[in-house]
Specification:
Helices cover 55% and strands 13% of the residues. The chain is α+β, with helices and mostly antiparallel strands and 213 residues long. It starts with 9 loop residues before the first helix and ends with a strand.
């Protein structure tokens, strides 16, 4: 093979500064790809959505397209060594934050705190009884704001409320069906009701379980 077709490695042998830059750039590229894979894997694990994974590429592409020309002008006018140094430090900081995130997750997992919070993204009425905690301290309802839906949710969850627990319903003023459903529940359970009609919050109803009813 003709030598002119091969990569000229003379700068790597002759320039220690270029050699350090080349090695550092290579390590940085490997780290960037590892971080990209880790983020992609984490997003897919949390969401199980290919659309969310594709959103990662969109979030990276939009700034590159929007600020590409501006970044080129800054690169021509400013000290490129400082730009590379600052950007490399920024990438290192992001990678360090990912490491901290994993360490915190492992710590929370080792302390047995993961089971304290459970998030379900679906209609509350579709939850099975086995998925609902047996003792609920705070029930916050802010769903369809319909009388039938609110009443059904209250009936479904109120039996899991412990003595002294709270029920909070949003939009109690702008959607009368919400307040109507709660008042109907008052007739069946011994609840101490307090209304906080904050106009900017469309009304907030707060009730507290006084006895086991």
């Amino acid at each position: 093979m003709p030598r002119r077709l091969l990569v000229d490695a003379a700068p790597l042998r002759q320039s220690p500064a270029f050699r350090r830059y080349w090695i550092g750039s290579g390590l940085s590229a490997v780290g960037t790809q590892m971080t990209l894979f880790a983020v992609t894997y984490q997003v897919f694990t949390l969401t199980n959505s290919s659309l969310a994974v594709g959103g990662i590429g969109l979030c990276a592409a939009v700034p590159a397209i929007a600020f590409g020309m501006l970044a080129g002008s800054i690169g021509d006018a400013a000290d490129r060594r400082k730009i590379v140094l600052c950007s490399s430090l920024g990438l290192a900081a992001v990678s360090a934050l990912f490491a901290v995130q994993v360490a915190l997750y492992r710590l929370i997992e080792s302390l047995g705190l993961l089971n304290l919070w459970t998030f379900k993204q679906r209609n509350a009425l579709d939850l099975d009884e086995a998925e609902i905690p047996q003792q609920i301290d705070l029930l916050f309802i802010d769903t369809f704001h319909l009388y039938s839906q609110t009443l059904a949710e209250l009936r479904k969850f109120v039996k899991h409320l412990r003595t002294g627990s709270w029920i909070v319903l949003h939009h109690a003023v702008s959607f009368p069906g919400v307040s109507k459903a709660l008042l109907e529940m008052i007739q069946s359970f011994a609840l101490e009701l307090r209304f906080y009609p904050f106009i900017h919050q469309s009304g907030l109803s707060v009730a507290r379980i006084r006895t086991n009813g």
